[in-house]
Amino acid sequence: MIHPxxxxxxxxxxxxxxxxxxxGIGKLLLDGTWTEWLPxxxxxxxxxxxxxxxxxxxxxxTSESGYFPRxxxxxxxxxxxxxxxxxxxxxxxxxxxxxxxxVWKVILTHLHTDHAGGIQHFPNSEFLVSENEYxxxxxFAGMLQGYLPHRWPxxxxxxxxxxxxxxxxxxxxxxxVTEAGDVVIVPTPGHTPYHVSVIVQIDGTSYFLAGxxxxxxxxxxxxxxxxxxxxxxxxxxxxxKILTYAQTEPTVYLPSHxxxxxxxxxxxxxxxxxx
Length: 275
Fold this sequence. Notes:
By secondary structure, the protein is of the alpha/beta class. Helix content is 24%, strand content 22%. It has ten helices and twelve strands. The protein has helices spanning 14-17, 25-30, 73-77, 89-95, 113-116, 131-137, 139-144, 217-221, 232-248, 261-266; strands at residues 2-12, 38-45, 52-54, 79-82, 105-107, 126-129, 159-160, 175-176, 183-187, 196-202, 205-211, 251-255. Helix 5 links the parallel strand 5 and strand 6. The chain is globular. The two termini are 31 Å apart.
């Protein structure tokens, strides 16, 4: 079973949600149009081998003065967070009857703060992260790109995802998380160069925990990369692979910021592809 947990909300610039023409940080900073409040979702997977968490959502500390680097223009001009302490993933898991300290594995699709802000709730878990994503996000170079490595707990030493050269549908490589192969990590570069997604197979349906491969199902179907993807062609290729996968497998698409996901999950509503 998959449990969605909304860890607050975020507003971004319209130019980030959907790219029109050339993107880039300059365009985001100058854009005067904000999106509506978008949810920030993380996911808890109940599996016979143990609890698996995909992304950790955001922290309420984002409301603290000085939490974001004052010199980083993105956090000053292009994003707004609304997260209360009771919305953090740890408290919400306990309310559902789960103990964060007993989580088996935590998979991070990427290391932007709205996906990695709740790392501190899982001190006993094995973290799985793309090795190159982790390398890009570390240190001052990572901060320049909008990561917040100085906010990670000192004990945070994730394990590198090991991809096998064995195709999973249109994805050239895969990493099995479970012995049964019913929870699989696949590379989905685009939003960041080493972004990953998690596919959970339950009773013949694939639940595609997509992170930020797109901000909504509609944008996926329209093949609209976001405004921060460093390589548009790579982002489009990833979208094409997801759509190709959905042609052969009933696929419920669950990106992290789609307000309309709840009905799709509740009714197991698969992607409907055009002819």
